[in-house]
TrEMBL record:
This is Cupin domain-containing protein. Residues 69-100 are annotated as: Disordered. Residues 79-88 have a biased composition (Low complexity). InterPro entries: RmlC-like_jellyroll (IPR014710), RmlC_Cupin_sf (IPR011051). Coiled coil: none annotated.
Length: 190
């Protein structure tokens, strides 16, 4: 048996104010587990995305998170091939409150947010994923230069290795940027 104190773990640079990875410290081989704190406006993920083989369950401990989810994949043997991000009009929003959970099957596009107003309540949640490896992970976000949703990738910022950016695969524009704030929490700066 392994035991860790969540607050003793490092904060990983992610789109949420706080993300602490528990799998390695706990010795998990087949399960990914992460602790999240989302300030108002924060997201669990860098972009609207799907996991090829990983099933995810998010358990909201406090606050209310809102997931934008696309259609469920039609072929469980080829979830990414049959997964469809869905046009924005085909997506639905699912609110998950304290002591509630949401399951995302492999291949279903999703992104969870804290949609509280500035100064509102944080979302605290646990994310569990199995298997631990998620396989292919297509990502999409709104590109301001293309003025449409496009595939994106995550990279270190070329002008500052301590920051992460998402980059549009269609035009090469920077879509979003995150950094570690002076208070040790992550923040989106673009």
């Amino acid at each position: 048996m392994d035991r860790v104190a969540v607050d003793d773990l490092d904060n990983s640079l992610q789109p949420a104010a706080v993300v602490r990875h528990l799998a390695d410290p706990l010795g998990c081989e087949d399960l990914a587990i992460n602790y999240y704190e989302l300030a108002p406006g924060d997201s669990f993920a860098f972009a609207y995305h799907a996991h090829e083989v990983q099933e995810e369950v998010f358990v909201v401990l406090s606050g209310t998170a809102t997931w934008v989810v696309g259609p469920e994949p039609t072929d469980p043997d080829d979830p990414i091939g049959s997964g469809d991000p869905g046009a924005p009009s085909q997506r639905r929003e699912v609110e998950v409150g304290p002591s509630e959970a949401i399951r995302i099957p492999p291949g279903q596009f999703q992104r969870g947010w804290n949609r509280a107003e500035a100064g509102g309540e944080r979302v605290r949640a646990l994310a569990l994923g199995a298997p631990r490896a998620y396989g292919e992970q297509p990502k999409r976000d709104d590109c301001p230069d293309c003025d449409t949703e496009a595939p994106v990738s995550i990279r270190r910022a070329p002008d500052d290795e301590s920051r992460l950016i998402t980059v549009c695969a269609d035009c090469g524009a920077e879509v979003a940027r995150w950094r570690r704030g002076d208070d040790g929490e992550n923040e989106r700066v673009r």
